Amino acid sequence: MAEYTGLIDGLVRRGAIWYTQDGIRPSSSEVLNMRKLLMLTHSAGFRHDYLPTAAEVVQKLGRESGEFEAIVTEDCSLVNAENLKNFDALLFATTGELPMDESQKKALIDFVKEQGKGFVGVHNATDTFYKFPEYGRMIGGYFDGHPWTQEITVIVVDPNHPSTRHLPPTFRTKEEVYVHRDWSPDRTHVLLKLDNSSVDISKGKRPDHYYALAWCHEYGKGRVFYTAFGHFKEVWGEEWFQKHLLGGILWAMRAAE
Predict the structure, then answer these.
(1) Strand 170-177 to strand 148-156: parallel, antiparallel, or no bridges (unpaired)?
(2) What are the beta bridge partners of residue 218?
(3) If we measure between CA atoms, which residue out of 118, 129, 133 comes closest to residue 67?
(4) Who's near 91: CB < 8 A, 6+ residues apart?
(5) What whole-number distance in Å separates Cα of residue 45 and Cα of residue 94?
(6) Do residues 121 and 216 lie in contact, with contact meaning Cβ atoms separated by under 8 Å?
(7) CA atoms within 13 A on the CB side of 70
(8) pLDDT averaged over 10-residue windows placed end to end, the chain, 257 residues
(9) For burial by CB atoms within 10 Å, which of 44, 95, 125, 254 has the most?
């Protein structure tokens, strides 16, 4: 108990956000009974303006669902083998070559692949760690441009996943649509995809013109969920997206099937 309390105190001192709905830090006993999510928002490349809103939303989802407590930080040093023992999942809302040494990168991969924990990537998480190929294999692929920033039609490919059960077969939303390279539908389970008829498809780079917008898969003993949505901070306030993200987080944590 004392060791975990010390961890929480250290995270607060280093700028991580940790509070309840009433703005009061929970007791150690309350914390220990909850699943833990570490959300990393470090931007080593382009910094998205949705990040402060995202931090609030992810913490709200954990509180209101009663399923997890979220710590949000930009401090990459918190991703290490010792600290990760206290968490059930990681959520990356990151860009660029994150300042992590080889031991931290190994800890990140082992956390999911060997320890069976969860990894969640949001939007620009695929615009991260281009020089770390195993990260690309874990998340499923890499960002390769965004030819469409507009209102699009989204097709629900799998309506039975916790992140999609609440969605109609198709729906409209505004998004900066990512194209991905080193990605294949044969290596992941597609949940949502772009309706190509809703855009000028000639702008897309992929020969197969398959533009997945959310996917999930097993990675070793763990689970990975990725959603390409979230570029606009307004979408973080929309009920469909919050339920979509919550379902993905819970699936990655094995708290929902």
Answers:
(1) antiparallel
(2) 223
(3) 118
(4) 37, 38, 39, 40, 58, 70, 119, 120, 121, 122, 249
(5) 8
(6) no
(7) 28
(8) 43 44 43 86 86 96 97 97 98 98 99 99 97 98 95 99 99 97 98 98 95 99 98 96 98 98
(9) 125
Would you put residue 15 in left (φ > 0), alpha (ψ -120 to 50) or beta? Answer: left
The dihedral of CA 191, 196, 202, 207: what is its sign?
positive
Question: Is 109 in contact with 117 (CB distance < 8 Å)?
Answer: no
Straight-line distance from the first to the last Cα atom of the chain, in angstroms, rounded to the nearest whole number:
31
Q: What pTM, to 2 d.p., does this model score?
A: 0.88
Burial class, 208, CB count within 10 angstroms (exposed 0-12 / middle 13-18 / buried 19+): exposed
3-state helix, strand, coil in the chain (%, to 5): 35, 25, 40
**Single-letter residue type at 35:** R
Q: Which residue segments constitute the domains of the chain, with CATH numbers given?
A: 2-143+215-252 (3.40.50)
